[in-house]
Amino acid sequence: MTKKLIPTALAAAMLLAGCSLIPTYERPAAPVPTTFPGDPAQPAGPAAAAVPWEDFFTDARLNGLIRTALENNRDLRVSVLNIEQARAQFQVQRSSLFPAVGLTGSGSRSSPNPYQAFDSSAGSVSSQYSVNLGITAWEIDFFGRVRALKDQALGQYLATEESRKAAQVSLIAAVATGWLTLIADDELLELTRQTLGTREESVRLTKMRFDNGVSSELDFQAANSLAETARASYAQQQRTRMQDENALALLLGAPVPASATAGGVKGLDSVQPMPDVPAGLPSDLLAERPDIRAAEQQLIAANANIGAARANFFPRVSLTTTLGTASSEFSGLFDSGSKAWSFAPSVTLPIFDAGRNRATLDSAKAGREIAVAQYEKSIQTAFREVADALAGRATLGEQVRAQRAQAEAESVRFRLSDMRYRNGIASALDLLDAQRSLYTAQQSAVTTRLLQLQNQVTLYKTLGGGWATKDGKG
């Protein structure tokens, strides 16, 4: 009977355990409209979250940079290590559901007479040796406290995994945006270089006319001022280009290779096109945005924490049990008849704790409400980001077309003004104004085209694209 008592008690305890005080989880309603503003026309194709980033960013130069960043970026590396830490913490909490079996050995010698240690004839010495295999203070989870803590740790672990995906999405979008900025920087540098050459030619021509008394010093100084303005702009853009390259190198975790921006004189027109992706419905974001899924897992974890706080009001039952051998002689420790066992359950019932358990429960409920607000805010933020990107897609195309047409018109105007000035028909001010307008229009056309490409990247990111890969390891 003695040998059967312990396993029978353990089995009964495990069967009784399992009551849960965790509130039933209900996903909060999405606090956004059911459609995006304007109800834009949806292009055909798979959802952005289902498009691997290799298929969206098809330019070989950018593709290589993204791979470098995924391998070397320190922020992404920290996100991966955070997952490992959260997984380990979950395993620690989960292990509390099971009894920890350990082997212990002990030995003691004692005597009621303190002088016996110096004089062996002063009194008797008692000895006790034991070796035991058993369970120490295993909490039997009658009211689900340990399971609730396990569920909380699981929610935090899953939230960390989703946060890692969100970090990858942000990293890929940042690399693409930074690379496009570098391409635009190079195009603007070339444009400024050409403009500087044109203005220096105007200075030379105006100086020659001034020396011959055909034009005034006012015309010469105006042309000289425009040339110096172009030099200052060129120096500023060189600085901006170097700073943008430094920012991209930080994202890559490595220097930016020269081949990454080798596009010749085409600039942004050399970039391989990115496909349009359908926006879908706002409700789709709940499943496609890693940051929203991470916020929901944090909400689930906070909900589970309420169950653990509620369980603090109920008795806590723990069990200590051992089976082994004991003897007063070390040499007889494993002899026949030296077997020993113990079965020691304990119950702790909270009676007075000065309101600690109530405060813990109130804190857990407040934590859940905070998590609800953060979850709803993440949905609202995602809705706004997608709506902004859709607004850009609907308008930037026409803006690019119009500004390129304006730049072409200003180019024709400049050529005509230059011809008229050389033939003495137009004034120098007309020529200089045409130069200034042409340079401004060309800069605006490049900048708007950059915004259009970056908006495509932003829309892909805000729709949850970037964490899926062709090999399925995203």
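the 2nd protein, sequnce then structure:
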Amino acid sequence: MEKRENGTMIKQYCYDVVVVGGGATGIVAAMAAARSGVKTAIIEYNGFVGGNVIPGLPLLGYHNGNGQVVVRGIAYEIATRLQEMGAATEFYLDPITSDVLGVDPHWFKYLVTKMLQEAGVDFFLHSMLSDTIVEDGTVKGVMIQNKEGSQMLSAKVVIDCSGDGDAAVHAGADYVYGRQSDRKTQVSTLVFRVRNIDFKPLMQYFRSNPTQIRPWSLSDEVATQLMDQMETSEVFVLGGLQQYIEQAVRDGAAYPRANLVGVCIPKFDQMIVVSSRVEGVDPNNNRSYSNGEVAGLLQMKDVFDFMRDYAPGFENIQLIDTGHQIGIRESRHIVGDYLLTGEDLTTSKQFDDVIALGGYHIDIHSPDHRGIQSQKVSTYEIPFSCLLPKGLEGMLLAGRPISATHEAMASTRVIPIQMAQAEATGVAAAMSVQQSKPLRDLSVKELQSRLIAQGAELGQGIGRRTFEGAGEGTLH
């Protein structure tokens, strides 16, 4: 269909649900909606879906600190299908990150694209959001821009998985940028991958220097257990080598962090390096974003040189690839019906409208210094109300821009936990369409029951909650 706007004919497409953003969050939201039987489209400015997994990032946060699975559903399905393909490691528990799963990014890209196609999702790749259509406080669709020009995608529900809350902001949603006190955000990082690592000298070094495994001290027992696991595991987290970094800096090296951060995947003979550190990158300001990309890429060479010249076992490393874009850890926090706080996570606050769990530590890559701030959490709950932008109907949020503080988002931002949020938005959007009800009038219990029926974990599997019945109560 074509429609005339400002004297120009533009193409118009009609959908039940439109998902803005084709990263790891958006793909799950779109799958969940389409599998629920509603006509769904996904919009992505790259020529592929998968987001930050595509540079090779591992998946952290499926388990809590006790080794219990807190993220299931579609996110877990993706993990197990990758494992069946030989494109992912086994899950390994970790004393800081709870767990780690290494994945082959190319097979991840293939698999999730296939799963979206199987679900019947329409793709709008190479397309950027240009506006959100709102009538009387209700979102009615979005405008996109690509080489054809402008197109209108009408929708009964729009799910914002853009990472920066772009669709919500275009719709007029209020937001807080970064941490509320000073608008500073976690630092950004350009990820890259290297191979040809000799892990034996690295393990020997850690045996003699257990304080160099992580930036935080580990008990002798935990350090020994971790080293025993690292020597035989397919994947492990790395966050240390402070002594070598201090020496390199004394020698005049331009190393940007206090430690070497990344994930080693012996299964694939590679390491995903997450060690560049670029402050103040605003992805909503083109000059800032562009300069951040340049700074991240130039820092990559400094980090690579350090590893080759100082890190044991890295003498012959080779560069595999660099990320397609710099990784943004934090930007906008959309103001929602409920603000999720760091205290909610650390106290394991329970919510009547819980739709996802998390157990990943509060992991702040600080703008104030070269290190990382970490705070352990137990299993925590994420309420549906922090996925609803205040004052707007017909829109849901998932991923980085949910209504959460700087501290809370430092945990909820990891990929599996974002995927769990996204599955809830897809199911809720489908319910809203099928029942012709506003999102806030949906039954909480029915939403929870549907999520559990399709494999999601809301606490029932780890003994935290009992969910009975469906169709009672609303999301007010």
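The two ends are 37 Å apart (CA to CA). The chain has a mean pLDDT of 95.
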